[in-house]
Design brief:
Longin-like_dom_sf; SNAP receptor activity; 6 strands; V_SNARE_CC; 25.3 kDa vesicle transport protein; alpha+beta
């Protein structure tokens, strides 16, 4: 299954978007997000420049593609088909480029494209069950092959001898930015609920007012 999804600008490692619901059903989600941020930082320094790579980490595996100076990364169970993981990333890349391609270079704050979470969640659902006819067809698509994608260990990629507590320290400064991101997500959800139910509340208020006025008159 797809566990995490994150998108970042390669030139400086700036996070651009993330799956809001990612990691809620797994232990140590924050630990793996810190590893992802460390990978993004490595890429921003010009290390591990393969445009496609799989990186093993514990019971999971990171898959990423780089295109247009943007890295699209997902973390899946090791048993999840690599072919589907990369097709999932391709779908995200195509939609992200279509919607935000001309804004990527000018983005100045983390998670500038928070609204892309809607597409991430919708697309992730399509790829979760590998047994659907849609995903079986994708697995059998001979035109899309991933045999030559390199697979490495996360400690190799982050650097021999680099300790994971250093990764944790490096991500601490993004903690406050993540909180802001979560607050904005809650605000968006609240606004959506208000837009959905405000007309109903108005109609009910008018009906109650008319009923009260009728009783007063009679």
């Amino acid at each position: 299954m797809v566990k995490l999804t994150m998108i970042a600008r390669v030139t400086d490692g700036l996070p651009l978007a993330e799956g809001l619901d990612d990691g809620r059903d797994m232990q140590d989600a924050e630990f793996y997000k810190q590893q992802v941020k460390a990978l993004f930082k490595n890429l921003s320094r010009g290390q591990n420049e393969a445009s496609r790579m799989s990186v093993e980490t514990g019971p999971y595996i990171f898959h990423y593609i780089i295109e247009g100076r943007v890295c699209y990364l997902t973390m899946c169970d090791r048993a999840y088909p690599k072919k589907l993981a990369f097709q999932y990333l391709e779908d995200l890349k195509n939609e992200f480029e279509r919607g935000y391609g001309n804004q990527i270079e000018t983005a100045a704050r983390p998670y500038a494209f928070i609204k892309f979470d809607t597409f991430i969640q919708r697309t992730k659902k399509l790829y979760q069950d590998t047994r659907t006819q849609r995903n079986i067809a994708k697995l059998n698509d001979e035109l899309y092959e991933v045999h030559q994608v390199m697979t490495r260990n996360v400690q190799e990629v982050l650097g021999v001898g680099e300790k994971l507590d250093q990764v944790s320290q490096m991500s601490n400064r993004l903690t406050s930015e993540s909180r802001v991101y979560a607050d904005k997500a809650r605000d968006l959800n609240r606004q959506a609920l208000i837009r959905k139910w405000a007309p109903v509340a108005i109609v009910l208020g008018v009906v109650i007012l008319l009923f009260w006025a009728k009783n007063k008159i009679w």
